[in-house]
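User: Run a structure prediction on this.
Assistant: Running it now.
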Amino acid sequence: MAPFRELLRSADAPVVGTFVKIPSLEVAEILGDAGFDFVVIDTEHALLSVRDVYGLVVVYSRMGVAPLVRITDHGYGDAQRYLDAGAAGVLVPHVSNARQARETMRQYLFPPAGTRGMGYAARAGRWGHLPGGPAEYVRAGQEDVARIAMIEERESVDDIGGILAVPGVDAVFIGPGDLSLSLGEPPGSPAVHDAVTRCIDAAVRAGVPVGTVVQGEEQIRLRAEQGCRFLLVGNDTGMVASAARAATSTARSALTPTALAPTAGAAR
């Protein structure tokens, strides 16, 4: 499996992923078989432990699906463990400006570019037996891991050019939900649409891969045409909920009095 960071630049079309919030290996296998290119394991909004994330990273990576992790905050500790577990990258939430981008991304880069510590004896280093040794572990951590800044606030839209120029920002992800709250606009409003489009345009001009959340074929085509390189469609909880509601709706519809009424001429 090509590193996610390489996939962003080499794929013929935008790569497609989904958010993961359920700590279930069975659900992970189902999603892995569904054809997603990547997943974003969500520790910001889902109650996932480090052990949960570790298991999901292993399963998805073994199935050829790039496992990214949306970390909880701008801290170092858990993100270090996710990367040493073999995560394909991290999404850093609420990166408000270039200064925050510099401070956070340095934590996920090895010296001299940053401050990430050596964890060669972990899974990312094949438990100390990675072909190429510690040098390959460091190279992969610098060159293959995707460090993604999440653009979710009015301030980050205003400073998008500065954020895109920060060393270590390998891609940006625009979160329209939180952006609508920051702008004081309803989701899907023209102001939110324009802000997302402005950030996409800036990223494309800067040569930085950009992604966002999409709904429906029309929006998928639009964002792809604008230059997005990765797109997120839904999440595992929503998919389970939709399937469950569809199943119960079908059953209830079949059990209505009208549906159960005998047809004309039926034997009595």
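The longest strand covers residues 15-20.
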